């Protein structure tokens, strides 16, 4: 059979988590919490099931949940999204990304991504016959020179994918970045897919600059969010997509034939839960403390920590420790030192050798402490 995705193998997150289990290593690779989500939340799922939320939810999402999402967005950013026509509940951020791209990208369309990039963007674009145009971000700060981005524009440029706070680098887009993008994109019909799943995970008092805050960007953007991150429940695979009515119409044309609708009792439970904002507003401090704690622990190691302004990932250079490729180095970390990480080369399409690995710090402090003790021996 002729593969539609030659060169693509099993995602690095599955590979590393499996290896971590096989070698009994502490798993700081795949991004997910190792502590339970709020028991109030799971009780609300039981309540929803007992109250009869066991059949198909409405295709675009539970109405009550869409209203709560609209309220949350308005409270955070003072921007109104219409729950009926501009908000769709999805099976996590991944399905929302896949659906938005499928709704828009035709064969030959070009999509600009910033690498290192979350691993689902490029394969999805290719599956649709689109062409990936890559802007390479450089360590340690991974900043963007927007004049160079402009050089990637052609008459076939259809979309730009943004991701702030960024996975894996923990970098964020500033107000100046967004203003540069506004200038660049005004007068074009280029659309934006803004992956904002880490919107709350932004540190040191910095504010998340959502594309929705810029009318020129908002009108052309699909914004992706994930309840997995917000509620420490990545296994629930629930999220949503915000987009202006015309874009949402196209999004739902695909969504209805892809999943039709998503998990009903959990949607109802999340709606009840996020009705009370104090159930999630502590998440920023919670993860900022984890970042600080983990960075403090690793300060005693030979790893050189890169900046981490957001997300629950900490990147580190091991160039003072070893000359190995990051894939080899991370294998050795698992086997010899008992800690699983992600080699950052996995976030690039072409071969790279920056000697950087990614740690996930969405873990119990004890887990981080035990991992750091092992990492100090490296
Ligand atoms: N985008 C980014 C940048 C991510 O890190 C992730 C995964 N955690 C997703 C999208 C997908 O989110 P979900 O687990 O809700 O599908
Ligand atoms: N987003 C998570 C990470 O970057 C994992 C998502 C997944 O396993 N697909 O680690």
Automatic annotation (TrEMBL):
<keyword id="KW-0808">Transferase</keyword>
<protein>
    <submittedName>
        <fullName>Aminotransferase</fullName>
    </submittedName>
</protein>
<keyword id="KW-0663">Pyridoxal phosphate</keyword>
<feature type="domain" description="Aminotransferase class I/classII large">
    <location>
        <begin position="25"/>
        <end position="373"/>
    </location>
</feature>
<dbReference type="InterPro" id="IPR015424">
    <property type="entry name" value="PyrdxlP-dep_Trfase"/>
</dbReference>
<dbReference type="Pfam" id="PF00155">
    <property type="entry name" value="Aminotran_1_2"/>
</dbReference>
<dbReference type="InterPro" id="IPR051326">
    <property type="entry name" value="Kynurenine-oxoglutarate_AT"/>
</dbReference>
<keyword id="KW-0032">Aminotransferase</keyword>
<dbReference type="InterPro" id="IPR015421">
    <property type="entry name" value="PyrdxlP-dep_Trfase_major"/>
</dbReference>
<dbReference type="InterPro" id="IPR004839">
    <property type="entry name" value="Aminotransferase_I/II_large"/>
</dbReference>
<dbReference type="GO" id="GO:0008483">
    <property type="term" value="F:transaminase activity"/>
</dbReference>
<dbReference type="InterPro" id="IPR015422">
    <property type="entry name" value="PyrdxlP-dep_Trfase_small"/>
</dbReference>
């Amino acid at each position: 059979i002729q593969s539609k995705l030659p060169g693509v193998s099993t995602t690095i997150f599955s590979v590393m988590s499996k290896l971590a289990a096989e070698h009994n290593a502490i798993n700081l690779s795949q991004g997910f919490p190792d502590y339970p989500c709020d028991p109030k939340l799971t009780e609300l799922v039981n309540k929803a099931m007992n109250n009869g939320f066991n059949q198909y939810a409405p295709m675009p999402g539970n109405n009550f949940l869409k209203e709560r999402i609209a309220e949350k967005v308005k409270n955070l950013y003072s921007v109104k999204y219409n729950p009926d026509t501009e908000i769709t509940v999805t099976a996590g951020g991944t399905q929302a990304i896949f659906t938005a791209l499928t709704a828009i990208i035709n064969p030959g369309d070009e999509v600009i991504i910033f690498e290192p990039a979350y691993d689902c963007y490029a394969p999805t674009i290719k599956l649709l016959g689109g062409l990936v145009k890559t802007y390479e971000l450089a360590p340690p700060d991974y900043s963007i020179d927007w004049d160079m981005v402009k050089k990637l524009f052609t008459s076939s440029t259809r979309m730009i994918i943004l991701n702030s706070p960024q996975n894996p680098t923990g970098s964020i887009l500033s107000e100046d970045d967004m203003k540069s993008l506004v200038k660049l994109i005004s007068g074009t019909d280029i659309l934006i897919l803004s992956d904002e799943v880490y919107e709350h995970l932004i540190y040191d008092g910095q504010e998340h600059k959502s594309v929705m805050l810029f009318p020129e960007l908002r009108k052309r953007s699909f914004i992706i969010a994930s309840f997995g991150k917000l509620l420490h429940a990545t296994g629930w695979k629930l999220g949503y997509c915000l987009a202006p009515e015309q874009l949402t119409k196209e999004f739902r044309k695909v969504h209805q034939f892809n999943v039709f609708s998503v998990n009903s009792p959990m949607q109802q439970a999340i709606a009840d839960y996020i009705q009370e904002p104090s159930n999630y507003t502590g998440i920023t401090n919670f993860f900022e403390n984890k970042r600080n704690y983990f960075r403090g622990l690793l300060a005693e190691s030979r790893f050189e920590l890169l900046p981490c302004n957001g997300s629950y990932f900490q990147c580190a250079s091991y160039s003072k420790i070893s000359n190995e490729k990051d894939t080899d180095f991370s294998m050795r970390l698992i086997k010899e030192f008992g800690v699983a990480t992600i080699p950052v080369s996995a976030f690039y399409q072409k071969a790279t050798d920056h000697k950087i690995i990614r740690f996930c710090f969405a873990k119990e402090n004890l887990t981080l402490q035990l991992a750091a003790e092992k990492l100090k021996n490296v």
